[in-house]
Amino acid sequence: MAERTTTGTTESRFNLPNTLSLSRVVLAALFPFARTPTPQAVLIVLAAASDFFDGWIARARHTSSKWGALLDPITDRIFVIVALATYLFIGALTTGEYFTMIARDLATAIGFLVARVVPSLQKVTFKARWAGKITTTVQLLVLLAVPLAPGLVRPLVVAVGVLSAWAIIDYTIALQRARAAAA
Length: 183
What we know:
Elements: E1 2-4, E2 10-12, H1 16-30, H2 37-60, H3 66-89, H4 95-117, H5 130-148, H6 153-182
Antiparallel strand pairs: 1-2
Helix pairs in contact: 1-2, 1-3, 2-5, 3-4, 3-5, 4-6, 5-6
């Protein structure tokens, strides 16, 4: 499978950045079996590192692509949701904390589906925004806090809630601006 990259060359969908993104699915599959703090923390750090390096390598090698831009946030969400569901299942997070942690992800998924259905939004390109990146970073800090610093979980979840609201508003405004520009 090949596709055209931003440089105009044809690349395999299974290049190094995309393989790093896909590694988060494997890490997510392993997470429910990591029942002690050290393996949980290692998996979270590996997921965070793969998230950082997939984008960095894609930009450095000029292999950014639509496929990679779609794959990256999906694999991020898979890892985060599996880790959060595992923590919920073992009682390390409350149901309210779980839903606070995934609120931005649910809103983004609904927004993406709406944008695919509404004709005036179908050509809008979704791009990562700082509000979303910061929210994801704090989500990862929560994931690390659960096994390593449980006393920080509640304040960090509150921070994720506030940042999620900011990210939802930011993405909504960006979508409205893109819609206006496309009109």
